[in-house]
Write a structure and sequence with these properties.
five-stranded mixed beta sheet; Rossmann fold; elongated; six-stranded parallel beta sheet; 7 helices; alpha/beta; 239 residues
Length: 239
């Protein structure tokens, strides 16, 4: 399969390594020095997009207009989600998006939703989310942190919104805290804690490197080839 990489930073290089190991070809490396307009019809079977929130929307729309299936790892563009997904459907194109492509994180998502349902009847426990990333990460909270919070809101019942503040700064019981920390050389850590006066229940995912994110994105690219529609990692993993 011919894969075009939109973004060739640390993540793009890790994706390239995994893709080559799995027998694929990197047909294009799109960056500032090699713009996407150089990508011609037939150059790629699928695009994997890991750039920046500022560039993502235009990149995604370009792929949809040219009917190149696109796997989107960038977050921070979801304010345009409805418009972009409508464009995908209208163009009979294909896109697969995820706030996190790590297989472990997507299993963590499933555990998070189940735990939130269990805790719904135990209001003595206050929930909170903590996400820790490297200092170069541009968005806060992380897309994964937002996904975790929104899963809790959907499955718990007590919480109606989230705020990107420390738990101690939350003013109402209906608000869920997402605390963002940026530290050197941290691939990504996400924690969910339910705390009461007598104990704490917590689940945690810690990435040791970028390999898990890269592998998941390549698996997604393999899965979406030949399909039309809007998909997530739940479809890839049949969760």
């Amino acid at each position: 399969m011919k894969i075009a990489l939109f973004g060739y930073g640390k993540m793009g290089k890790e994706i390239e390594k995994i893709a080559l190991e799995r027998g694929h070809t990197i047909s294009a490396k799109i960056s500032r020095s090699n713009p996407k307009e150089n990508l011609k019809a037939g150059d790629a079977d699928v695009v994997i997009e890991f750039t920046s929130p500022e560039a993502a929307e235009e990149n995604i729309r370009y792929c949809l207009d040219h009917k190149i299936p696109v796997v989107i790892g960038t977050t921070g563009w979801y304010h345009q989600f409805d418009s972009i997904t409508s464009q995908c459907i209208q163009n009979n194109a294909a896109m697969l998006y995820a706030t996190n492509f790590s297989l472990g994180v997507n299993l963590f998502f499933a555990v998070n939703k189940y735990l939130a349902k269990l805790m719904a009847n135990h209001k003595e426990y206050a929930a909170g989310v903590v996400e820790i990333h490297h200092t170069q990460k541009l968005d806060a909270p992380s897309g994964t942190g937002i996904s975790i919070a929104e899963q809790i809101i959907a499955n718990h019942g007590q919480y109606t919104k989230w705020e990107n503040v420390k738990k101690s700064q939350i003013e109402t019981d209906a608000t869920l805290s997402i605390e963002s920390l940026r530290l050197p050389d941290v691939p990504g850590t996400h924690e969910v804690k339910y705390e009461s006066e007598i104990d704490t229940i917590e689940i945690k995912h810690t990435a040791h490197n970028r390999k898990g994110f890269a592998l998941g994105s390549v698996l997604a690219a393999e899965w979406i080839a030949g399909k039309n529609g809007v998909f997530t990692m739940n479809d890839v993993l049949n969760l």
